Amino acid sequence: MTQHNQPVRVAIVGAGNIADGSHMPAIQAQDGQAVAVAVVDVDQDRAAAFADRWGIPEVYDDLPDMLRDAHPDLVVVCTPPLAHREAITACLDAGVWVWCEKPPTLSLAEYDAISAHEGERGPYVSYVFQHRFGSAARILREHIRNSTLGAPLVGICHTLWYRDDAYFDVPWRGKWETEGGGPTMGHGIHQMDLMLSLMGEWTEVRAATGTLARDVETEDVSMALARFANGAMVSMVNSVLSPRETSYLRFDFADATVELEHLYGYDNSHWTWTPAPHRSGDAPESLGAPTDDRPSSHAAQLAVLLRALRAGQRPEASGHDGRRALAFIAALYQAAATGRPVTPDMLTPDNPFYHSMSGIRDTAHDQADKEQIGV
Fold it and tell me: How confident is the model at residue 364 (pLDDT cuts 50, 70, 90)?
């Protein structure tokens, strides 16, 4: 592990758009606390071009070779979802921490099998859920924890995006086996994770899905109604069919409504804090709206992850905290397929939706997963 006075050595696996557009800027925003030392891609020419753009000294087309030679402290996995499991477990088994792009894995079974490779004190794998880490979300989480806005009652969580037919020409998109699901899994997961990280444990979900306009195996729209342990009820919509794109979350408390409308990231200007009628004289600041303004971003999450890595502590968005959104999505797909409500206790290894978001089981993968988690 890196010394506290030395930058964390970071390697990138997958030299695609998300690494270029989000992860390398996040690394460079850490004020010298992190440095990219290697990049890995099955296309070595693409990896070499990526390294040239970002001044990365080492280029590899093989992950084990990189782990052996470059000695990273943290590996950022930016591959398509199908390749997450192999890359994460290779890094954990080499004693290296991991930060992996969403969706974490293709199934709960995969998630739990990967978790078996973590040590009691690390290394750990954390997942990219950057919307939790803006200042407004973090202060709202404290308000909910301390009940300063009154009881949470009603919520809305909408990911209304647009992806045309050409978007799904990429071979792994829109397929259960390689993407794990449709917009519920690949797009709405960010807003749903933010909602779940704020509202806490869910207790029941009812849902419907449809494939209305895109030529895909998965859904192109889903709708859900969720109940939470704190008594709140939340409606959720995930779509890639919505020409006016928006990401919209709303939280109605006894004393206020708090809203967020953005697209792919927010700062404080995207939030609205509205007092209830009996508090109509209150300004947003008196409701507890934040005065500091840290936007949601990969950089914000990476800063928190680096602190956890240096302290040897499990980071946010890992373990049970990283699993919550994936379990909710599995329940949503099961509820939509069966027309019946699903509760967390139903997501056990004898449930086909534990093994695949489609509910179609692969017995060979099932057996491998069971061996990993000791079932």
Answer: very low
